[in-house]
Specification:
Elements (H helix, E strand, L loop, with lengths): L8 H19 L5 H11 L17 H13 L4 E2 L6 E4 L12 E9 L5 E10 L11 H15 L6 E3 L8 E6 L2 E5 L8 E7 L6
Antiparallel strand pairs: 1-2, 2-3, 3-4, 4-8, 5-6, 6-7, 7-8
C-alpha cells in the first residue's frame, strides 16, 4: 500500500545538499581589495622604516623625544598645540607666498613596549580662515597626497574603505608601510598616519 504524500528521502537529501552548497558559496566572502593588497605587500618582504627627520619605525619613545629635543634646540621644530604634537613649518616652494604656508604636526605611535610602530600627522594652512575657500581641507588634501607620495615613493594612493570603516580613505601600501589619509572631518585639518603593518592588524 502506498502512503499518501510519502517523502522521497533521496530527493530531500539531494535538495539539502544543493542548499548547503549554495549557502556556503553565498556566505563565503572573498578577501577585500584592501586585505589582498596588504597581504601581498607584507609577503614581498620589503621593509620601509623611515618616517621624518631620521626618525624610524622601531625606535623607542626615548629616542623619539631625544631627536625632537635636538631639533627643537636648533629651531627646526617646536612644541605643537596642546602638547600633543610636534610642529614643523613646511618650506615654501618658489611659486608660493606666505598665504600658502602649511604647518605639519606629527607625533609617534607607540606600542606597550614604547616602540614606535607608526606616526600621526596633521596638516593645515597657517593662514587658514573659514571664509577662504582655497585654504580649506578639501583643497589641501590634494597637496598632502602629492607630498606624501613624493616623500614616500612607491605605489599610488587608492580610495578604499577599511574593514571597520564605512567611508573611504586614501591608502598607500609599500611593503610593511601603510599610509592613510583619513576622511575629512574638519574644514581646516587634513589628518594622516603611517603604520607598520607588521605590528598592526585590522
Amino acid at each position: 500500500m502506498t502512503v499518501p504524500n510519502s517523502i522521497d528521502l533521496t530527493k530531500i537529501t539531494r535538495f539539502l545538499l544543493v542548499v548547503l552548497i549554495l549557502t556556503s558559496f553565498c556566505c563565503s566572502s572573498p578577501k577585500s581589495e584592501y586585505k589582498e593588497w596588504a597581504e601581498q605587500e607584507l609577503a614581498s618582504g620589503v621593509i620601509h622604516d623611515s618616517l621624518v627627520f631620521n626618525l624610524k619605525l622601531g625606535q623607542t619613545k626615548k629616542e623619539f623625544f631625544e631627536t625632537c629635543w635636538k631639533l627643537n634646540k636648533k629651531g627646526i621644530i617646536k612644541q605643537g598645540p596642546n602638547n600633543k604634537f610636534v610642529e614643523y613649518k613646511l618650506p615654501l616652494k618658489n611659486n608660493q607666498n606666505l598665504k600658502d604656508a602649511v604647518n605639519m604636526l606629527f607625533y609617534g605611535i607607540f606600542d606597550n613596549g614604547n616602540l614606535m610602530t607608526g606616526m600621526n600627522f596633521q596638516f593645515y594652512h597657517t593662514a587658514w580662515s573659514l571664509w577662504n575657500k582655497d585654504l580649506q581641507s578639501d583643497q589641501l588634501v590634494h597637496s598632502v597626497k602629492d607630498s606624501l607620495t613624493k616623500w614616500y615613493p612607491g605605489n599610488d594612493f587608492r580610495a578604499i574603505t577599511l574593514p571597520k570603516d564605512t567611508v573611504e580613505s586614501l591608502i598607500k601600501i609599500d611593503g610593511n608601510r601603510r599610509i592613510i589619509i583619513k576622511p575629512l572631518d574638519d574644514p581646516r585639518i587634513v589628518k594622516a598616519r603611517i603604520d607598520d603593518l607588521r605590528h598592526y592588524r585590522e
